[in-house]
Specification:
heterodimer, A: 229 residues, alpha/beta, Rossmann fold, six-stranded mixed β-sheet, four-stranded antiparallel β-sheet, 6 helices, 31% helix, B: 364 residues, alpha+beta, six-stranded mixed beta barrel, elongated
Chain lengths: 229, 364
Amino acid sequence: MDLHIDDVTLVYPDGESTLTAVDAVSLEVPAGTATALLGPSGSGKSSLLAVAGGLTRPTSGVVRIGGDVVFTPTTTPREATRARRDRIGLVFQQPQLIASLTALEQLELRAHVRGRRPSSARDHARALLDAVGLAGLEHRRPAQLSGGQRQRVAVARALVGRPDVLLVDEPTSALDHERGTQVIALITSLAAQEGAATLIVSHDASTLASVDTQAVLRDGRLATADALR
Amino acid sequence: MFVSLRDLRHARGRFALVGTVVLLIAFLVTFLGTLTAGLARESTSAITDLPADYLAFSMPAPGDAPGFTASSIDEAQVKQWSSVPGVESAQPVGVTTTRATSPTTTAAVTAFGVLPGSALVPGADDSGVIPSGGVVLSAPAADALAVGEGDPVTLGGERLTVTRIVDADDSFAHTPAVWVGLDDWRRLGGRSAPGTATVIALSVHGLSAEAIADEDATIGTTTLPTSEARSAVSSFTAENMSLSIMLAFLIGISALVVGAFFTVWTISRSGDLAVLRALGASTAYLLRDSLGQAVVVLVAGIGVGSALSALAATALAGVVPVVVDAATVLVPALALLAVGLLGAVAAVVRVGRVDAHAALAAGR
């Protein structure tokens, strides 16, 4: 399903005044494609991603997945949590893996959070770990994996359960250029394979050769949105 | 509990440490519980085991509670109680703690003076009349004095003969009980006035508490149910209160220890909780996960600690006055579990405030 960000504005309180982090941004990410969100530090990229993931309520505007309105200024935390659980995969700036879980369990956890038996996700989880190049490392804990391997586990975790939308926040910030490019390529190919509408926030355009569209934010506003393919 | 069970395995050192602390507290609480009950029994069992519904004491001085030491009833009061409708039996009972001497040793005992043939003596039957100059010993008293039936015993200067040893462990104020005829008791108890005794044991049928209070006012007595009369044993209340306060403090400390551990633990895993929230875990899911962890630690620590304590108390039963039963083992264990869970709930309630947004920015 497509991701629609419709006229979203996000205003934060800033001392006695306010700060407009996102200013009337509209963006559409079709299912199975990846859009990169670029811009300088403080341009509102991560804020827009937080709104798209229901981590922050927009001040105005709505986020839709397919035809369903999922996040609005009045969405409750419970509704946002449910929407994230059922429809959205998140990849954070750091892998954010849970230290006590093996790579396979990191993925099975998503099924458990959804109220299903962890083993129900095992086949898909193994296939995803295989796809991100971690076959044979399923039973290793985060401390036994390299930084790049941990980020690959995080990507696989976001895609297990086949979410409609994949939101990725600066996934290459801790990786060198080559590994960063590989991780972005991995995300875009897997997202296309799984049919997820993917929005990737990045500050490094050189790693984004594999995305379908690049959008640039400046001072909270959408400056450009160019299709690359 | 998908994550919390794996956390338990992953951080087994930390959980073993807090589990051991809970285990030791449970051991101590359970042992103190069995000891409190044992000391209470050793202090009052001869009273609480009396086959009577009520005990009537002489009216205490204003502001005082009825007590075995100060109580003295006379024959007229016994007769008055006997004539009250609904009273099936009113028997005078003398109670005196005194020194007993056998040919080989000396021990403190409490002598109960009863009417001839009284059913108040354990194991009494038609042939159980205590003859003048005779004494019935409880098994602990016979052991303490190293005597058997037919042996001489001196009680408070009165030379008596052991007529029977009954299989009962009745005791009063931490001394084993013996039973003598009321006339012999008056001599050894130094109460020369005929008809006097310490209390009246009442068996009643269909007599309300209000009616008993009315009769008390008329007769000049204060009547307590037999089960409550242990408070009239001078040492019991202070002793029991001291031990109960220790128990309460230990249970309170347990709640604080568990609460403190899970507060620190919850803070240390707040990053994991933020990630779980970002992945779509509800507050109920996070609470179940965190509290489940506390339940596992508490149940394991308390279960093992209480079981070990019950075993130790059983092994020491011949040396230390302990009562090992469901009330002294399970009740403290359940109280510990309840307050431990309260401590854990107070600690993990913060998971409801975990912000998923924090996971975006956190560097881990």
